[in-house]
Design goal:
Layout: E1 5-11, H1 15-26, E2 30-36, H2 40-48, E3 54-55, H3 59-63, E4 68-71, H4 78-85, E5 94-97, H5 103-112, E6 119-120, E7 122-125, E8 145-148, H6 156-168, E9 172-175, H7 178-205, H8 219-225, H9 232-241, H10 243-266, H11 269-292
Parallel strand pairs: 1-2, 1-4, 2-3, 4-5, 5-6, 8-9
Antiparallel strand pairs: 7-8
């Protein structure tokens, strides 16, 4: 089987980048995987686990003969990261990313990159709260959705390659405008993380009889706050980069919370039952949707 990519460069061999390396290698989609990153300890783990063939801190060595470069770094770091590699990438090398924010990333990349280095914005919607090469696993992407955000400037060959790679590791792939992507993800991903962070803060700040409240937390609290263990730098950058959409989502959530609060204040059993019933029905619908994938 001829691989899709001869040399894949993964910049940021963490959960997403590392899992892609494992999955692509397991399915014969790549011939060689090169790892780049900030910490040698993490890259050594990636090498020991067979995620990469070798690692380097030298952009010239990594870029030599590369077909595809994957940026799996925090959104705010993408521009300064790719600047180091551009002088050493061969013409035709496709650059893509895995960021949870797309409009700012796509605009920045298309303004900076030369026409000889096509860019394709991508967001594989899969992950856990864990980080680093040690957290990577080959089946992370199977059955999940990957969103691509091409523009009129996107090279068809580059788009086809990135689509084939994500489909090759088991993802369903859709295309949409970057701005639409950001508005959607603000509500179904970014807002839930903000709520989890806020709930942890509120509980940590609360004073109830001088006890450690977390020692009394059950599965509901643990489920609600699981993603609060997510990487700091990544989520800080997401909230700042997608600020307008996140603020809109927060305003919508505040209105819903205020409505429920008013129902509690009034002791309005009917209103509360209606709200809980609607939420319950929608949660069951979500479960059915996830079962189909």
């Amino acid at each position: 089987m001829t691989p899709l990519v001869h040399r894949l460069v993964i910049v940021g061999v963490g959960l997403i980048g590392g899992s892609l390396g494992l999955a692509a290698r397991a399915r014969g989609l790549v011939r060689e995987v090169v790892g780049c990153g900030r910490t040698e300890a993490n890259l050594r783990v990636a090498l020991e686990r067979g995620i990469i063939d070798f690692y380097t801190f030298d952009p010239a060595e990594a870029g030599r003969g590369a077909d595809l470069l994957l940026l799996a770094v925090p959104v705010a770091a993408m521009r300064r990261t790719i600047e180091q590699f551009v002088p050493f990438l061969p013409p035709g090398c496709v650059i893509t990313d895995v960021g949870s924010v797309k409009e700012q990333v796509v605009r920045t990349m298309e303004a900076f990159l030369p026409p000889t280095l096509p860019f394709v914005g991508a967001h594989p919607i899969a992950g856990t709260e864990h980080a680093g090469a040690a957290a990577a696993f080959a089946t992370l992407f199977e059955g999940h959705l990957c969103l691509l955000t091409p523009t009129p400037r996107t090279a068809p060959r580059a788009l086809a390659l990135v689509r084939a790679l994500w489909e090759g590791v088991g993802m369903r792939v859709e295309e949409m405008e970057a701005a639409t992507h950001d508005r959607i993800l603000a509500r179904v991903s970014h807002l839930p993380h903000l709520i989890a962070f806020s709930l942890m803060k509120a509980t940590s700040d609360a004073e109830v009889g001088g006890v450690d409240l977390l020692t009394y937390a059950g599965s509901a609290f643990a489920d609600m706050t699981r993603v609060a263990a997510s990487p700091i730098e990544m989520w800080r950058d997401i909230f700042v980069s997608n600020r307008d959409a996140v603020l809109d989502a927060l305003c919508e959530f505040e209105r819903a919370l205020a409505w429920l609060k008013a129902g509690v204040e009034r002791g309005d059993e009917d209103a509360l039952a209606e709200a809980i019933g609607r939420a319950r029905a929608e949660r069951h619908r979500l479960a059915r949707l996830r079962e189909r994938t």
